User: Fold this.
Amino acid sequence: MGGSGGPCRGPPVKQLKKYILVRALYSVVTLWLLVTIIFGLVRLTGDPVAIKAEAGADAAYVAQLRQNWGLDRPLYWQYLSFVGRLLRADFGHSFEKSLPVRDIYFERLPNSLKLGFAAFLISIVLGVPFGMLSALKVNSWWDNTGKMIALFGLSMPGFFVGLVLIMVFGIGLGWFPVLGKGSSAFVWSAPSTWVTFWVRDWAHLAMPAFALGWYFSGAMLRITRSGMLDVLGSDYIKLVRLKGVPERMVVAKHALKNSMIPVLTFAGLNLLIMVNVAVVIEVIFNWPGVGQLLYDALSNRDFPMVQGVVLMSGLMIVLLNFTIDVLYGYVDPRIRLSR
Amino acid sequence: MATIPVGAAHTIAAPRAARRRYRVLREAPVIPLVILGVLTSVAVLAPVLAPHGKLDPVAPTREQCLAKYSMPDCPYLDNVPPFWSHGGRFNTPLGTDYLGRDVLSRLMYGARISLIVALTGTLFAGAIGTALGVLAGYMGRWWDEIIMRITDAWLTLPSLVFAILLSSVRGPGLWNVVLILALVFWSRYSRAVRGEILTVREREFVKLAEINGIGKLTIIWRHLIPNVMNTVMVLFSLQVGVAVIIEASLSFLGVGVPPPEPSWGLMMAQERESLMEGRWWLEIFPGTCITMLVLSANMLGDWLRVRLDPQLRNR
Assistant:
């Protein structure tokens, strides 16, 4: 496994380079497969232009679309031009607005990132402390409460949480603005400085972020709990305890750091997933992010737009996985040498 | 255990099978089983149990029409609240929607849709995923490399995003949702099953079977698949919950089950505006149904996982 020459003593730069190269190759292969899968599935399972025509589009317009989209050409040609255009970062033009998909996407992305980041913070604030408490007091009252929170987090669909929030805090109590991003529904009485602007913006963010983060906080709680339990049961923690270190220090100094590694990896992946799957939440709260773009494209039967958004989210996740792999390889020589 | 000799004699005298049955009963996850049992029987018996039809409005009486619209004749009463609220009727216990249809009846028929779609979709996904996972794990080499690369690529997309992509080329429809669920979820099974197979194929009974010259298909069918069924079952029960949420989300977005049918997600989507006007019952009831179904599937999955994996039992 670790090569033939035994443990490597020199500077690990060479190893690391090789490792990064191999991981990069894997990512490229994954990405290519993903693109091929999307191309194949779309051609096999249906015809986007036929769906468009079903909506009552003009026949000449549909024929035009078919030609623009290259659907009258042979399959191999379609595939090559599809991959070729993707290599030039060209996702095609939207059916609906005659703008490049890429431009529309990047215009919306900051909003989604903001929402995703807020939800990410909420999921960590809710999930990590509860997960740790549960692990430290297994089968206690804390643990059972934590389990219930995780279970409900994973079982209540985000859109239901969102609608309940709107009902209780938006309409019932009137604490938070219900729709959109910085609309006039929320009137801030203080003079309009950047602080008030900031507060107003975040007030709009509060409910969608909570609805989105709720689901992931359950997952975070479980990951934290099991990670912490693994570490607490390990030999080095036993040793630290045997040395007579107070329990508080055992947890704070030794267990916490090590148990946070998988949690942070998972959290990083979650952040990206939240940016990409907030479709229903963004629709409910009328948040102008990528998810709403996807929904609009879906209801307008604007296939290139849908495909572009999906491809972008695939690209983001592959890149993140690559980064995580590289970081792990950098930190842990066992991973670096295993291939 | 028992301190009185008579009691002890009784315990010993009781047939072993009966005692085992009692233990299984005592340890069974009561809450999810009850919820699932109720939902399933309601779904099966919907035509018998439902007080009204799923698509037709409830016919109002003359007095009701006069009271609500001050007209002697009206086709239906829309947005009637549940019976305990002011203006509610016992005839429509959970109220009516914007077309005057009975919410309770629609919820009952909705249970059918949710269960059919989630169960069949996950079942197909499980079949495809298990088959490919076994192939990759047992045949090894190129099979393994190709299948697992594809699985990895498949897993990169979040399931909702993938489902939306497929629904954009399939259009709405109940069986389209089943197809989409099968296509999206198989990769989770193949990954887990392949991992299991890698350890099972090194076990002695598999080696012995190979030495005896038994064909590969027989080994797979007789020796490998029964040994990965635990993993598949746990995954199945956990995936059903996710499948219910995906179906509800797709229907909510208008690309799942098409409109006149009473899908829970669709019911919530259609009544989104009415929430602003304070008609909470049109949202809360379907949402609670979805939550209950997913909750019980998740609880059952967790219970199975702990039960089938002794290492997790005290976690």
Observations:
- The radius of gyration of chain B is 25 Å.
